[in-house]
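User: Please predict the structure of the protein below. I'd like the answer in structure-token form so I can feed it into my own downstream comparison script.

Assistant: Understood. Taking the following sequence of 470 residues as input:
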Amino acid sequence: METDDSRAALTEAAKPPWDESRPDGDAAAAAAFATAHEALEGMGLQAAADRVRERIADQGARFGGSEAPFTVDPVPRIIGRDEWARLERSLAQRARALDAFVADVHGERRAIADGIVPAAVVDACPFVVPDLVGLDDPPRVRVAVAGLDVVRDADGTLRVIEDNARVPSGMAYMLASRRAVEGTIGRPDDVRDLTEAVGPALSTALRATTPVGAEPGAAVLLSDGPGNTAWWEHERLAELMDVPLVRPEDLRSRGDRLELRDGGEPVSAVYRRTDVAALRDPDGGLSALGELLLPALRAGTVGVMNGFETGVADDKAVYPYVGDLIRYFCGEPPLIADIPVHDLTDERARDAVLDRAAELVFKPRDGQGGHGVVLGPWAPPDELRRVIAAVRAKPSAWIAQDVVTLSTHPTVIDGRLEPRHVDLRPFLLADGDGGWKLLPGALTRVALERGEMVVNSSRGGGSKDTWVLR
């Protein structure tokens, strides 16, 4: 039997995708796209793609452990001034609520007591850090940098599809895309500059994480080293912030302080980009990173930008309640829409959802980078059977979302323009005064295979430069 939800999902999947090159009444955006198109046609589409690829290779930009350069398409995505301003207001509102919720979960838990988020959701959340509950001198901001993934549905409405607050990646790739495309076709004067904005904004956000009582000290970017798949990005961001790039062995814990091992300078702010994402091992003992950082965190002498507890904000089981959290913490309705999510922990609701699994998207609760995502309308039968079995075995580990047909953007494929699905990852950074600001650009991710709806680089996707108009 068809329900209203199932009909809505099928209708969305059947609609043609929104074309991002259509200016929709924005004359400035139409003019900017025409300028870019003229430059590309004048150079030749394949020649422009080859030139961009060379410029990316010259920067050494690679994704993960691959030796192949990061893929960047030469056709920029263009976002008008008014739409960007609306997006900034709506995402800043969302970041404020998420930051307040992370602090609340590790403090008084008012939102749970008041029924905004069920206690069972928080109790099962793998990202709650008991060691950081009830700190006397907590961080001033928990979600200091957020990469909130935004998509445009078939009706042209922007929606948040995922919240990323643990360690949002991609800022260096966003800059590499800008340098490669700008160096190939130029950048019109009415496109906002991006390259000079990232370093200062990141530095401000990092300092904003330090507890109020912390004494001044060094700021560092902490990485595992060249073995980390994002090492190239770590190097670039440390350069932009003008801070030391260190590994755990470069730091030491002395009492309730964190210090640089070489020279003993106190450290008061850490941008953690390590693969290790927990203070404790699965057996409950402190991890090496926990032994290094926990004493200073408990004492309030150091802040960690996006600390170990921020995973609470992008737990996919929390996602359905973000609108209510905005109303609760911000006292106003959400300014940007979510995508409907279905409860898999209720047995009756779960059975109804699984009966129409071919109409929905399934995501592992703690997944990242598109891993484990199953797109029902496009999944082969054996993949659907596997995800149904996994949901039945452990329903709390999964969420199911309605289908959204991602918008498309003209993309150079074998020397000609073809539509490919895209999403948008804008980066929102704490401004040090209790607010959040969007960087004046974003990482537009593009699925390079025809019909592919998962745009993550880890699944073979690429990037586009994103032009934000003044």
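That's the full token string. Residues 83 and 468 are 9 Å apart (CA to CA).
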